[in-house]
Specification:
single chain, 466 residues, alpha+beta, PH-domain like, 3 domains, 7-stranded antiparallel β-sheet, 14 helices, 42% helix, 27% strand, transmembrane, PH domain-containing protein, transmembrane helix
Length: 466
């Protein structure tokens, strides 16, 4: 058990010493392994060992474990963590460390099976420089979480609530099935006639089709196996919306809890495929501070969720987000998207000339790319937050604060330069996802960079090129 105390206004948690049990078990197993192989070398036989010799191995292992346990209890200083006004102070042996609250990006709890037996929880604290674990008594974990403030003043958000994964988490199986089936039909439609003509044998063409079906089945089973693993791992998934964080818990045998602070969230992305839109569902992902620096990539929202629940999450973090009245670049973007896919069209035409005219069916792919890219695009600039819509295989909506943008770049092809538009990319960190938000007017891109200059903090580095 751990004991907490107060000293000069600070709350002190003595870290759980139940880890000595795990260390002792490890020493016992290691000693037994070494003694077993030492005995084999001495007696010169591998598996023909008497019960007396096995008892000797057991006694050696038990003796080593007991000596380690006594030494650890007598000489190992009891580590502690002190919760102060400005940060956390750690003391472990002769090592003393300090972490500011402003550097803490996430706090999560993981209670495994052995932890439940010993009433010990592993608490992982993630900072901008990395993550480190501490072990606390299960009775003191919630108190420890409550004493860690956010790095900034919490936003006023009402109402608080919780989001529980329901039947919509199983919609992922249907979504994957529909997407892969559509891809199979599309690929077969554009190239099966050409393959049948080139092979000049319907049976060989059917074998090609069976090959496509085999690839389809392998991909489908692979994605479904991954979804089954996610559903099993995130059993009992609950998101609690608090004043300054999302408290995410899941797991039955091994209970895990994440605390994702609002201040560590750099961007929200809502993603909807065609079938997701029909079901009123979407997939939520975040770009957090630690993920943007390449340190962590936790899957905080693994399931599809209702669109209104996703909007609640966004509103909790970004209550000032603008209304989604998207501005578009007009039909001039059609030419720019067509120029992007011109290389594929040229390849299809060449194949149609030298192989078979049926290869011209491949032109259907760039046409679909141009039409969908043109439809799923738009942007809106609010006072503090910008929203972007883009995507081909799915519609993506990204919400990001100007102060959290780290780079904004724009590229132009011939059609874009002629029509005064540019293809914009946005990032929120060195290792973050690149949001290719599509074409926007040059004047709107200049407005975006001006808003960045006004909102950026002095410690942030903004790069924008045109």
């Amino acid at each position: 058990m751990t004991n907490g105390s107060s000293q000069e206004g600070n709350r002190i948690f003595y870290l759980s010493r139940h880890r000595v049990v795990f260390y002792t078990i490890g020493v016992f197993l290691l000693s037994a392994f070494v003694a077993f192989w030492a005995l084999n070398l001495l007696v010169g036989r591998l598996w023909e060992i008497s019960w007396t010799e096995l008892l000797a191995v057991l006694c050696i292992a038990v003796g080593a474990a007991v000596l380690f346990f006594i030494f650890f209890k007598l000489f190992a200083a009891q580590p502690l963590v002190s919760v102060t006004e400005s940060g956390l102070t750690f003391k472990k042996g002769k090592k003393i460390g300090f972490v500011r609250y402003a550097d803490i990006t996430s706090v999560r709890e993981n209670e495994g099976l052995l932890g439940r037996l010993t009433k010990t929880c592993k608490v992982e604290i993630e900072t901008h420089l990395g993550a480190f674990p501490i072990y606390l008594s299960a009775d003191e974990v919630q108190e420890f979480f409550g004493l860690i403030p956010a790095s900034r003043e919490p936003k006023k958000f009402e109402p608080k609530g919780r989001i529980v994964s329901g039947r919509e988490k199983y919609a992922g199986f249907l979504s994957v099935f529909v997407q892969l089936t559509f891809l199979l039909v599309l690929v077969a439609a554009v190239n099966f006639p050409s393959v049948a003509v080139l092979l000049k044998d319907l049976s060989d063409a059917c074998m090609y089709l069976l090959g496509l079906l085999a690839i389809y089945a392998v991909l489908l089973l692979g994605f479904w196996a991954r979804l089954i693993y996610i559903v099993a791992r995130f059993t009992g998934y609950v998101v609690r919306i608090e004043a300054d964080r999302f408290s995410i818990s899941y797991g039955k045998v091994a209970k895990t809890e994440h605390n994702l602070f609002f201040d560590s969230i750099r961007a929200f992305r809502l993603r909807q495929t065609f079938i997701d839109r029909l079901l009123g569902l979407c997939r939520v992902s975040v770009e957090s501070a630690q993920k943007a620096k390449g340190i962590s990539d936790n899957n905080y929202f693994p399931f599809l969720m209702k669109k209104e629940d996703a909007e609640t999450l966004v509103f909790a973090v970004m209550p000032e987000r603008p209304p989604l009245a998207y501005k578009k670049t007009g039909r001039s973007a059609l030419l720019a998207y067509a120029e992007q896919s011109a290389w594929f069209a040229v390849i299809a035409i060449i194949l149609g000339i030298f192989l078979t005219p049926l290869m011209l069916l491949l032109l259907l792919l760039p046409v679909l790319f141009v039409m969908i890219s043109y439809k799923n695009r738009g942007y809106v600039f609010g006072e503090n937050v910008a929203a972007f819509r883009y995507g081909v295989t799915a519609e993506n909506i990204v919400f990001v604060r100007y102060a959290d943008m780290r780079s904004v770049t724009a590229a132009k092809n011939l059609s874009a330069a002629r029509n005064g538009i540019c293809d914009a990319d946005i990032t929120v960190g060195q290792f973050s996802r690149v949001f290719s938000v599509g074409y926007m007017n040059d004047a709107d891109f200049s407005e975006l960079t001006e808003k960045l200059e006004k909102k950026v903090d002095k410690d942030n580095e903004i790069l924008y090129t045109l």
